Amino acid sequence: MGDPVAETEEEIRSWALEYARSKGWVLSPDEKHTCAVIKGLARNSEKYGERYCPCRVRSGDKEKDKAIICPCEYHVHELEQAGHCTCNFFYDPDFL
After folding, report:
1. I want to staple 25 with a disulfide (CB 3.0 to 4.6 A). Which of 10, 20, 30, 52 is the partner?
2. How far apart are CA 26 and CA 8, in angstroms?
3. What pLDDT, in 10s, does the model give residues 26-35?
4. What is the 3-state secondary structure (H, E, C) of the chain?
5. Left, alpha or beta for 72 (phi > 0: left; psi -120 to 50: alpha)?
6. What is the pLDDT of residues 38-74, one digit of tens each?
7. pLDDT value of residue 1
8. What percentage of the chain carries pLDDT values higher than 70?
9. Residue 2, pLDDT above cutoff 60
10. CB–CB of 44/60 below 8 Å?
């Protein structure tokens, strides 16, 4: 089994935009912040082979850490409650 291919920042941005659109959301209106999250996701993809949320702490246990692969399993509830995910990456435009 080979190592997963690391995703580039461009690939992650493209995926994130499409994912957000498919849910009726947008990315953070703060472009600097969006870039920082994308860089963190790309770094984690390169280093660990998964797009781990840069705003959460990895346990090192691959099975447990599946929950924090972006989009993490918590993001939908967070958007419903606060209008954005913990990373402030995905936003519900109705909350802006």
Report:
1. 20
2. 20
3. 999 999 999 9
4. CCCCCCCCHHHHHHHHHHHHHHHCCEECCCHHHHHHHHHHHHHHHHHHCCCECCCCCCCCCHHHHHHHECCCCCHHHHHHHHCECCCCCEECHHHC
5. beta
6. 999 999 999 999 999 999 999 999 999 999 999 999 9
7. 41
8. 95
9. no
10. no
Token pair for 83: 């209008």
d(CA 96, CA 94): 6
> 0.85 cut: is pTM over it?
yes
Alpha-carbon span 72 to 68, nearest angstrom: 4
What number of other Cβ atoms are within 10 A of residue 32's Cβ? 7
Q: Give just the sign of the alpha carbon dihedral 85, 30, 6, 19.
A: positive
C-alpha 56/C-alpha 59 separation (Å) is 9
pLDDT of 96 reads 87
Give the C-alpha distances (Å, rounded to integers) separating 45 from 4, 24, 49, 77, 91: 9, 25, 5, 24, 22
